[in-house]
UniProtKB/TrEMBL annotation:
Residues 458-485 form the SDH C-terminal domain. This is Multifunctional fusion protein. HAMAP family: AroD, Shikimate_DH_AroE. It comes from Candidatus Methanofastidiosum methylothiophilum. The active site is at 118 (proton donor/acceptor), 143 (schiff-base intermediate with substrate), 288 (proton acceptor). Involved in the biosynthesis of the chorismate, which leads to the biosynthesis of aromatic amino acids. Catalyzes the reversible NADPH linked reduction of 3-dehydroshikimate (DHSA) to yield shikimate (SA).
Length: 500
């Protein structure tokens, strides 16, 4: 169940937002903190009030209500009189709680009281004691929401839901980006509901995921303990589009699986506490190399590149591979063969290495140029390739140009890895591939196309490597058409332009 949480600032806005919240969520939490012209009766008459939680959050609990305690309790008491589904009162307001419990008895109200605890700093180690104290009160539901400072805090919440979720039922998840996975998984761990804001509206707590994303991309209402769990290990992970693409693929192929963003600070600690929990991972910066000692086995390509971007669990062993090289080859070969072609690769970082080994596997003749020339030499040695100093990159002939640097990447989309003079030439017969996919139409690709070059974008590399990841995990080769659709949708959602 997903609860849409809204904080309107007037009665008119409350009516408009509650309509949306109830049409999209299973329940709606109406935060009345800011509504000075509140009319609970009118709201109760207009909506299915059994599905509404009335909350009037005070400042020291992260809310916005500024009046006295008696005024704060008014709407809650009215909501009980009118038979709203739920009211929320904080664990720190013990006198108010007692008053509400006694009112509920006198009114013989069926409104359920949610006793809530918030901690915006951390997830205390004595969480169990706090929950036990809360369970001593005569309430219907207990809500415990704390801040995640480390991804392992999610397991504290999972434990609490497992241990104490009898009577009264618990609602529990974490705030902050490191707690995001609890917002997706808490229902499958036993939470009565998870909370979310509506898309496009202000967040009501840090780390929230929009309701539409929880419902339609993560499929929160379907996830149960039988689901296979995959995730992206990295730092940062926010910009990745994988959460969208892989979850859409799982849904398209009707698979009981979910893919999560895992913001990891301490890789060793993460692998120790979470390894058993996951079926597979994607790996991104800065862990592509440091993950290797945690794996039971890695394939030849990943070994050569010295970096892993995909892991699957096979029985009890973690197997690593690198699909970036497959993605790059896939992207270039859509428009040009590689065998015997002269390929100038700009960049010798993670992408540069993976692309170079992919091109070598297809027998391309490689020339590497990197700002830090020592890295170019080091990579070239492993491949038996040539190098060219960074300042001379415009002076060399080639059939295929690959940009594997960060030049041209948002927010510096006006930059270009080739000098202006390069684009004064007729480039017909040349293939230009840019690994950068944010934006998709980089300056390098746009100018090269104008001069007659055939172009291949980083989006195709993304698609190629993600297809290979999905196949590595599931054995299913996903359809290119769906992959392209999901990737473009994801990029649009992220705010980039996906036209190409
Ligand atoms: N399409 C895909 O699926 C895909 C997959 C992976 C990566 N990528 C993209 O590929 C790009 C590189 O990623 P990465 O993982 O290889 O990063 P990385 O390991 O950090 O390497 C960065 C590379 O860019 C070079 N570079 C950075 N700023 C530069 C500048 N101002 N002038 C010249 N060279 C510069 C670095 O040169 P130095 O060594 O001299 O610092 C290095 O070669 C990123 O845009 C990334 O998004 C795309």
């Amino acid at each position: 169940m997903i609860t849409a949480s809204i904080i309107p600032s007037s009665k008119k806005e409350a009516i408009c937002l509650l309509d949306k919240a109830l049409s999209k969520g299973d329940l709606a939490e109406l935060r009345v903190d800011l509504i000075s012209d509140l009319n609970i009766l009118e709201i109760g008459n207009l909506f299915d009030k059994k599905r509404v939680i009335i909350t009037n959050r005070k400042k020291d609990e992260g809310g916005l209500f500024e009046g006295n305690e008696s005024d704060r309790l008014h709407p809650l008491i009215d909501a009980m009189k009118l038979g709203f589904g739920f009211i929320d009162i904080e664990h720190s307001s013990i006198d108010s709680l007692k008053l509400l419990i006694s009112k509920k008895r006198t009114l013989k109200s069926e409104t359920k009281i949610i006793l809530s605890y918030h901690n915006f700093q951390n997830t205390p180690l004595d969480m169990k004691e706090i929950v036990l104290q809360m369970k001593d009160q005569d309430v219907d539901l207990i809500k415990v929401v704390t801040y995640a400072n480390d991804i392992s805090d999610n397991l504290i919440i999972k434990d609490i839901l497992f241990l104490f979720n009898d009577n009264p039922r618990l609602i529990s998840f974490l705030m902050g980006e490191r707690g995001e996975i609890s917002r997706v998984l808490c229902n499958s761990w036993g939470s009565f509901t998870t909370y979310a804001p509506l898309k496009g509206l202000d967040m009501t707590a840090p780390g929230q995921i929009p309701l539409e994303v929880l419902r339609d991309i993560y499929r929160v209402n379907s996830i149960d303990e039988t689901f296979d769990i995959y995730g992206l290990i990295g730092n940062p992970v926010k910009e990745s589009i994988g959460y969208y693409v892989h979850n859409k693929l799982f849904s398209y192929y009707k698979m009981d699986a979910v893919y999560l963003n895992l913001l990891v600070d301490d890789l060793g600690k993460f692998m120790k506490v979470f390894e058993d929990y996951f079926k597979g991972f994607c790996v991104t910066m800065p862990f592509k190399e440091t993950i290797i000692p945690y794996l039971g086995n890695i394939d030849q390509m990943a070994l050569k590149i010295g970096a892993v971007n995909t892991i699957k669990k096979n029985k009890n062993e973690l197997l690593g591979t690198n699909t970036d090289s497959l993605g790059a080859v896939y992207s270039i070969e859509k428009i040009s063969t590689i065998k015997d072609k002269k390929v100038l690769i700009l960049g010798a970082g993670g992408a540069g290495k993976a692309i170079a080994f992919g091109v070598a596997s297809k027998l391309g003749k490689i020339i590497i140029s990197n700002r830090d020339h020592t890295k170019a030499i080091e990579l070239a040695k492993k491949l038996g390739a040539e190098t060219i100093p960074w300042g001379d990159r415009d002076r060399v002939d080639f059939d295929i140009l690959v940009n594997a640097t960060k030049i041209g990447m948002s927010p510096e989309e006006d930059s270009c890895p080739m000098k202006d003079s390069f684009f004064e030439r007729d480039l017909s017969g040349i293939t230009v591939f840019d690994a950068v996919y944010s934006p998709i139409d980089t300056r390098l690709l746009t100018l090269s196309k104008k001069q007659g070059a055939k172009i291949a974008s980083g989006l195709d590399m993304y698609i190629g490597q993600a297809m290979a990841q999905f196949e590595f995990w599931t054995g299913i080769t996903p359809s290119y058409k769906e992959m392209e659709r999901f990737s473009k949708e994801a990029i649009l959602l992220r705010g980039d332009k996906a036209e190409n």
